[in-house]
């Protein structure tokens, strides 16, 4: 970032300070998501926004080594006392928070002190991968499904409602809450596709319209923080954990993507199965092949593997199918490809960057998708399971040259270090305790 860019950012931010003041904003929360999937924050009073936009807020590099319990792993490239970086709020995504009066929010890009993108900046990684594909005419649009469970203000999980799964009764009981949430999201210009009570006790879900990858990840963060804020205002605690209680149905963070090239949709009207174009088959074959490795990014917690079991609709099989809800990859005919095995302990920026890198590798490798699975994959004796532990996923990730090269050595090694740190944290710990210690963290 050069002096001209700094001045430009300062001017732009100066131009919105008065408007923010008129709308009652006192401070701007500037967030990034760390490698363990936790959204971290530094804030500035509104008058300081021009300075923050131009100079960035100083921040330690040690955050790249944080684990979900706030302990710090001694990694190969992060975790020591040295190093600083700058958090630059992205003014294009500045939003007045409707669920948190007095606050605005902007996601941060993390720059090195010397001005260029920090090698471990997840948001920048998603942007770089988007641009790399755009250079060849490919455009990905993405959206997350966000699931959460509402509990009372206790450490154990006590659902705030016992009304039925998908039951209108549940929504009626939480009518004011639901309306306030949807209204806050609308005010924040989040385009909600649908909202509904989900299967597990106290669980809800909403999904958002397709966007550019970085915007989709921003939206995933904004949705979660809005759900958290509105839930708190209604005296409830919210869990986005993959396993709120051991044995139950968990929270997923399914990722929908679609692909086009030079303005031409590639999920419909093609010569392949179900209308897929050959480039779409190659792209998604690259993703499918790498799902075990991608689990280290998209199912990144020890608790993720309590969720990733058959018959919980979490897509624990490394297979694809047409509208098949037990396969990890579900083609929604003509519309999108959903990857179901991911959850909300994932860093959405890192996950999108990695999925794009996997698709790009698939394009380079060529070839199409294998046979789709029909019916319950568990009934097919040779149906491959995804990793059943975080350790297995990390090993697959480290062995994947395309993913680790796209991320860069330092970035990939630190993500692996963080995963190993969390594996060590839960060594010998039973499922109830894993669920308990993960439940309220993300
Ligand atoms: N809650 C399920 C999961 O953990 C997903 C249910 C569904 O939307 O199909 O992924
Ligand atoms: Mg769902």
TrEMBL record:
GO biological process, one term: glutamine biosynthetic process
PROSITE patterns the record matches: GS_CATALYTIC
Ranges of residues in domain GS catalytic: 122-442
GO molecular-function term, one example from the UniProt record: glutamine synthetase activity
UniProt-listed Pfam families: Gln-synt_C (PF00120)
Keywords recorded for this protein, A-Z: Ligase
InterPro entries: Gln_synt_N_sf, Gln_synth/guanido_kin_cat_dom, Gln_synth_cat_dom
SUPFAM superfamilies named among the record's database cross-references: Glutamine synthetase, N-terminal domain (SSF54368), Glutamine synthetase/guanido kinase (SSF55931)
Family, per entry: Belongs to the glutamine synthetase family.
Protein name: Glutamine synthetase catalytic region
Source species taxonomy: Bacteria, Bacillati, Actinomycetota, Actinomycetes, Pseudonocardiales
């Amino acid at each position: 970032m050069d002096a001209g860019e700094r001045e430009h950012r300062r001017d732009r931010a100066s131009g919105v300070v008065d408007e923010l003041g008129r709308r009652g904003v006192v401070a701007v929360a500037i967030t990034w998501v760390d490698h363990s999937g936790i959204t971290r924050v530094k804030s500035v009073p509104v008058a300081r926004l021009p300075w923050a936009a131009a100079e960035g807020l100083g921040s330690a590099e040690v955050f790249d080594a944080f684990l979900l319990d706030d302990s710090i792993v001694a990694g190969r490239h992060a975790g020591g006392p040295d190093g600083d970086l700058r958090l630059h709020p992205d003014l294009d995504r500045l939003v007045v928070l409707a669920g948190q009066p007095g606050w605005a929010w902007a996601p941060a890009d993390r720059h090195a002190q010397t001005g260029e993108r920090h090698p471990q900046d997840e948001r920048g990684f998603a942007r770089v991968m988007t641009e790399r594909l755009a250079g060849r005419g490919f455009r990905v649009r993405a959206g997350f499904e966000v699931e959460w469970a509402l509990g009372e203000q206790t450490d154990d999980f006590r659902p705030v409602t016992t009304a039925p799964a998908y039951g209108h009764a549940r929504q009626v009981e939480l009518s004011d809450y639901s309306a306030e949430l949807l209204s806050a999201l609308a005010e924040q210009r989040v385009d909600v596709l649908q909202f509904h009570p989900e299967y597990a006790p106290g669980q809800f879900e909403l999904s958002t319209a397709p966007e550019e990858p970085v915007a989709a990840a921003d939206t995933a963060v904004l949705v979660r923080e809005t759900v958290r804020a509105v839930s708190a205002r209604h005296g409830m605690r919210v869990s986005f954990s993959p396993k709120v209680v051991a044995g139950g149905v968990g929270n997923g963070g399914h990722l929908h993507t679609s692909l086009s090239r030079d303005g031409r949709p590639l999920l419909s009207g093609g010569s392949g199965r179900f209308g897929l174009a050959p480039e779409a088959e190659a792209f998604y074959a690259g993703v499918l092949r790498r799902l075990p490795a991608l689990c280290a990014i998209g199912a990144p917690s020890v608790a993720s593997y309590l969720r990733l079991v058959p018959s919980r609709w979490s897509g624990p099989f490394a297979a694809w199918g047409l509208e098949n809800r037990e396969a990890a990859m579900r083609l929604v005919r003509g519309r999108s490809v959903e990857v179901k095995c991911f959850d909300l302990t994932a860093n959405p920026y890192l996950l999108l960057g990695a999925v794009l890198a996997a698709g790009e590798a698939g394009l380079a490798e060529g070839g199409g998708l294998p046979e789709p699975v029909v019916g319950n994959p568990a009934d097919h004796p040779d149906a491959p399971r995804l990793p059943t532990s975080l350790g297995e996923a990390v090993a697959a990730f480290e062995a994947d040259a395309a993913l680790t090269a796209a991320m860069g050595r330092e970035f990939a090694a630190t993500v692996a270090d963080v995963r190993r740190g969390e594996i060590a944290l839960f060594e010998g710990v039973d499922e109830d305790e894993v669920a308990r210690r993960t439940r309220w963290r993300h």
